[in-house]
Amino acid sequence: MKKSIVLLILGVILLTGCVKSQYYWGYYSYTLYKYKKAQTDETLAKHKHNVDKIIRKSEKKEKRVPPGIYCEYGYYLIQEGDVTLGLEYFDKEVMAYPESETFINTLKSQLKLEKEQSDE
Amino acid sequence: MNKKYILILAGLLILLSGCSVNHRTKADYYPLMYSQRPLTILILPPENYSTAPEAKEYFMSTLSETSSQTGYYILPLEVTTSFLKSEGLYDSEIISESVLPQFKEYFGADAVLITKITEWNKDYSGLSGNVAVSLEFYLKSTTTSEVLWNSQSRVEMDTSSDSDNFLGQLIETAIQTATTDYVPIAKMASTNAYETMPLGKYHPRYNLDQEDDMDELLKKGNKKY
Predict the structure, then answer these.
(1) Minimal Cα–Cα distance from B62 to chain A, Å?
(2) What distance in Å separates residue A22's CA from the closest CA in chain B?
(3) What span, in angstroms and rounded, lies between the C-alpha atoms of A51 and B79?
(4) Are the beta carbons of B46 and B182 closer than 8 angstroms?
(5) What is the ipTM of this complex?
(6) Superfamily assignment of B22-203 in CATH?
(7) With 90 as the cut, is the pLDDT of residue A49 above it?
(8) Quick check: A28 and B107 CB within 8 A?
(9) What's the pTM value of the predicted model, to 2 decimals?
């Protein structure tokens, strides 16, 4: 009897444990909320740092990086002027989530368009 | 002692079998989700019908995290939103149905999630301090324009009562310092709304939730804090 109770409790812990922690998000919602509240270089830097941390921690734990995170990080890099590295993160998004390919291609052609316009 | 266990067991059995006799399932409620099987979701900028203009951006900052738990590929919200802004589509209230196929073409989205904030109640008095958030969610197919799934939720926290729940205390402190932190409330409201959503490809229970009991899920999604 005791054994089955222990098993039951273990089962419940396992089940509830699985459901919640599908991805590692760190403080994502908080740092983004703070950035929305006061859009400064500092709050943006903090949020970007947290996005980077999500990638590193997820990869370390061999967890799937949450959808959109590689792309968001790449987007910040491109805004800062680091287009080459930014595009690498765009490709990482496609590798992790093939569903993103259409949107990433749209972003890339928009970037190209902007570059052409600034070159003229 | 033994009798007691048998009684409890019998009670449980009745309860369990009671559920299955007349239970309405996710598949009964949202058949289109299982026949169309969307994979990729574009979240449109929330429509804000509350009295708080800042609610739109604040609510959006919590939406990536809660939405990802449903198991769909959620397009990168920060990036898609700034893209939509540059195309003049930030005010999603004005986006007409005829635009839907373009979300498929340029974003690869099988469906768009329309969210409406109907209540975002800020109360800084701290005395009668009720904090409330109400949301409505609609998932629309980009190919057929049909509503595949919809849900609503309301979370209210009474910060004046001497509640011993952790979140209540958290909110209370936030109000006292006059910087109401909506992150936990907004997260809870959307998590509750998502309770009934058929699960997507990246969820461990993908394809295993058709028979889930809707009455149970609706109850879970309506819990009060």
Answers:
(1) 5
(2) 7
(3) 13
(4) no
(5) 0.84
(6) ABC-type transport auxiliary lipoprotein component (3.40.50.10610)
(7) yes
(8) no
(9) 0.82
